Amino acid sequence: MDRYRQQMLLPELGPDGQDRLAGASVLVVGAGGLGSPASLYLAAAGIGRLVLVDPDTVALSNLHRQILFREGDVGMLKVEKASRSLHEFRSDLRLEAHACWLSDENADSLISSVDVVLDCTDNFLARYLLNRMCMNLCIPLVYASVAAWEGQITSFAFDTDGPCLECLYPMVEDGALNCNALGTIGVVPGILGLWQANEAIHILLGQSRLTGRLLHIDLLHHEMREFQYNVAPDCRCRLPANRRHEPDLHQAVRLLTPAEFLASCAVEAGQRQTFSDAARGSYHVVDVRPASEAPGLEGALHVPLEEIAARWTECVSDRPTVFVCQAGVRSLTAAQLLAEKGKTAFSLVGGLSALNELQRGRS
C-alpha cells in the first residue's frame, strides 16, 4: 500500500476506500484522446481491473492527444499497445484488451463484468448503445466528449430515478460534430479524460457528483459552465425495466469501422487497399456528401443526404448498405433515415477522414 500512501491520507478515501478501488473493475470504451489519460490515471489510483475496447490502430496524427502511444507504435492496435504501456506502469494491474467495436452482440458480456463504464468514444451511435446497455444492467456510465477547444462531462447512475443520455440528447443531429470533424488541442481530451477517471473513482467510493449535471469547459476562453438537466418525460429510462429492451431505431443502424471496411477489399498481397476496392466488394456504398463538397467516389452511389428520403430505394441492395460522408455524422443520419423504412444500414465511423488517416498509417 506504500504506493498509494498519499491518496490514502484523504478522508474521502482512506484504507477502506483504497481496498474498494483495488477490488473494482472499469470498462473504458475507446483508447484514444479520452481513454488514454483516463486509463492511465485509473491505473495510477489503484483500480484492480481495466477492460479496454477499441478496434483501431495507432496513427501518427493521434499522438498529440493519445498519451499512451509513441512514434514507434504507429500501425499497432491501440488496445495492445495501451495494455503494454499500462502494465509497464503498474505490473499488478489486471487488464483485458478487446480489439473490436462495441456492438449489440458483445456489449452485454463486456458491461456486465464491470462496476463502472467510461464512454470515451467519438460518435453518438456508440454512445446510445452504451447508454442503453448500462441502463438495462444498472451499471454507472461516465460520459465525456470534446471538440475544438471545448469539452463536456456528466454521469448517469441508473440505480436511481435520474436521467440518461437520451434525456440529455434525444437524437443525433446532423450538426453534431466531434474532434475528428473540428480538430482539437490535445489538452482538451486530456483534461476531460482525467475528469472521467475522477468521476469513476467517486462513483466507486459512493460519492458520485455529476448525475443530472453537465459540466462544459471552454479552454479557449478559460470558462466553465454547469447545466442542470432532468429526466425527459418520454424517454426510454422512464419505462419499466422489462420494457427497456424493446427494439428502437438505433438497433437498425450499425457502425462500420474503417479497418472493417478496408478488410472487405479483395486485393493482391502488397497492394494498398483503396476505397474503390471496398466499394466493389462486400458493401453497397452510398456517398451522402453534396456534389458541391466533393466529386462522387469511384464505385459508390452518390445520393446527397437531403435526397435520401425521396431516393431511399436506390440505397437498398442485395449487399449491406454502408453510408459514407466526410466525418461520419451525415452518414449516421442517412442510416437512421433508412432504418425508418425498416432497413438495416451501416455508417462508416469517422467518415472518409478516418479512413484516409488509417490508410496513411498503413502506408
From TrEMBL:
It comes from Leptonema illini. Pfam families: Rhodanese, ThiF. SMART domains: RHOD. It comes from the Bacteria. One of its GO terms (cellular component) is cytoplasm. The chain crosses the membrane at residues 21-44. InterPro entries: Rhodanese-like_dom, Rhodanese-like_dom_sf, ThiF/MoeB/HesA, ThiF_NAD_FAD-bd, Ubiquitin-activating_enz. Residues 279-357 form the Rhodanese domain. Belongs to the HesA/MoeB/ThiF family. Keywords: Membrane, Transmembrane, Transmembrane helix. This is Molybdenum cofactor biosynthesis protein MoeB. Signal peptide: none annotated. GO terms for molecular function: nucleotidyltransferase activity; thiosulfate-cyanide sulfurtransferase activity; URM1 activating enzyme activity.
